[in-house]
Amino acid sequence: MDYQSFLNQRLQELKNGGAYRYFLEVNKSAQHFPNFYYDDEKGQPHSAVNWCSNDYLSMSTNEEVISKLGFVTHRSGTGSGGTRNISGTTNHHKELERTLAAWHKKEAALLFNGAYQANVTTLQTLGKNIPGLVFFSDERNHASIIEGIRGCKNEKKIFRHNDVEHLEELLQTIPADKPKLIVFESVYSMNGTISPVKAIADLAKKYGALTYIDEVHGVGLYGESGAGILEQEDQQNSIDIVNGTLSKAVGVFGGYIAASATIIDFIRSFGSGFIFTTSLPPAICAAANKSIQFIQQNHQLRKHFFENLKQLRAAFSNNEIEFKQNNSHITIIPIEDATKCRQIANHLLEKHGVYLQPINYPTVPVGEECLRIIVTARHLPKHINHLAYSLKKILHGDNQTDWQEFPAVAVAD
Ligand SMILES: Cc1ncc(COP(=O)(O)O)c(C=O)c1O
Fold first, then answer.
1. What is the distance between the alpha carbons of residues 219 and 321, in angstroms, rounded to a whole number?
2. CB contact set of 244 (below 8 Å; sequence gap of 6+)
3. Average pLDDT for the chain
């Protein structure tokens, strides 16, 4: 076989279908976030405003978190040098797991190198080890959940997005004594919907199912202490396993699950994706712990984030920029055409210094292509006004106003 040409052909097919991914070099600036730097194809330097970072609370640029990372790195070194079982567990790992367990009101927590790995490992480990376990999975669940469920080849039932009636219909098709696991997310990041947690928890109780929630986009933002949608909805005790990330609102790196001591001990003992990989660097754990403590104590930060969101949506409404109504922090402008979506994004970057990732298939189904906008705690009113102006100009073909009247937000501002 000519491996190179086979692979090149597949890549060409991807390019022809418009789904090939080009990475923009987003050179972050802790000082000027959400501004960043990049060089164009001719090597010319530019700055632009990032409108698609998941660093929601801008914690990756928080001075206390950065100092903690530096301090512990100097004391403990960079990498951990081992798996959790073979010299890779430190006081920083254990402390962070205690913080996470308490935050989610669970008995224990377990760290992974990302929430993706936490999803795949936990779901596969449960599927492979609980005889006859049937998965019930929301049709919009993240790729890592799909991968985890596929990997263990158990029976699975896919319910329509956030449709509890459909979920109940499917639960009724499985004998009462068969083990079941309902898997869903709290905030669906690609369409901004929030799941009906209580209704799903009630069904789980009625049909004797375990429950697993991915709170990756909820953690840090929702609830009194930022523990997520479960905290906001007073449902922390009704869901068995919570999955979260340390890489988005927490602004550091890593993932985890929180659950009963028995479930955590089980995944710790049987989960291949937990056992056979080097543990997180100690300084990363310490920095994540510091970030969570900061989030828990600084209600004002969350409040400010949601005020920014309100301002963003008000600016869109004032400029007749249509977006999907939802109760989450994710603002979606439907475009419904892959080529147009990419063209708009390119134009926004090149002409307006606005960086937005076009969301195309396979991230969303064909026909649901959109611009997905994330405001962070560090976007200022000038950034918001600049975005609204730029979008209005491109979406409404507004050629009346000279762009020079409203130049891109400069880094030095
Ligand atoms: C819903 C959801 N779950 C899991 C993940 C994976 O998280 P991590 O980046 O921590 O691996 C992501 C995205 O990154 C996500 O959007």
1. 29
2. 100, 104, 115, 215, 216, 219, 228, 255, 256, 257, 258
3. 94
Of 120, 187, 216, best ligand 1 pocket probe by most atoms within 8 Å of the beta carbon: 216
Q: What domains can be seen in the chain, in order of their start residue?
A: 28-56+299-405 (3.90.1150.10), 63-297 (3.40.640.10)
Establish whether residue 121 lines the binding site of ligand 1, counting it when its CB lies within 6 angstroms of any ligand atom.
no
pLDDT value of residue 74: 98
Rounded Cα distance between 374 and 83, Å, is 35
Q: What 3-state DSSP class applies to 226?
A: coil
Choose one of 122, 140, 142 to mutate for the ligand 1 pocket test, by most ligand atoms within 8 angstroms of C-beta: 142
Residue 110 CB contacts under 8 Å (≥ 6 apart), including other chains: 97, 118, 256, 257, 258, 264, 267, 268, 274
The CB of 247 under 6 Å from ligand 1? The reply is yes
DSSP state of 247: S
248 is catalytic: yes
Q: Read off the pLDDT of residues 313-372 as tens digits, 9 standing for 90 and up.
A: 999 999 999 999 999 999 999 999 888 998 999 999 999 999 998 888 888 888 999 999
pLDDT, tens digit (0-9, with 9 covering 90-100), for 113-133: 999 999 999 999 999 999 999
